[in-house]
Amino acid sequence: MRFPLLVLHILGGTIGLLGGTFAISVRKGGRLHRASGNVFTIAMLTLASSGLCLAILKSQHGNIIGSIVTFYTHSDAQFHFTFIVANKPEIMDSFEFSKPVRLLG
Q: Are 72 and 39 in contact (CB under 8 A)?
């Protein structure tokens, strides 16, 4: 049971690193940036989900909390960029500034 989850976790992390690196290396707002950002987000959600399952199986309370926070922050960011910022680029500057403040509150 753990081995397939571990393989999924490692693949999610590897794809997330590659997708994230590619997303920050191409022009922001372009088609490639959005596509690689989506790959990064899906990989991070896969990583967090498999990490949560592994942490529960191994009774690692800190990793349970870490995986829940990781899943929440990535899904929240994807939701806001997909449904709010994508159609209103003028609010991008204020949104990027307010995100760290919202995470602390």
A: no
CB 71 within 8 A of CB 52: yes
| Confidence (pTM) | 0.76
Instruction: Kindly give the residue spans of alpha helices, DSSP state H, lying in 1-105.
Output: 2-25, 31-58, 61-80, 92-104
- Among residues 21, 73, 22, 23, the alpha carbon closest in space to that of 47 is found at 73
pLDDT digits (tens, 9 = 90+) for 16-75: 999 999 999 998 878 898 899 889 999 999 999 999 999 999 999 999 999 999 999 888
Domain range for 78: 2-104
Number of domains in the chain: 1
Rounded Cα distance, 29 and 38, in Å: 12
Torsion sign, CA atoms 46, 19, 14, 64: negative
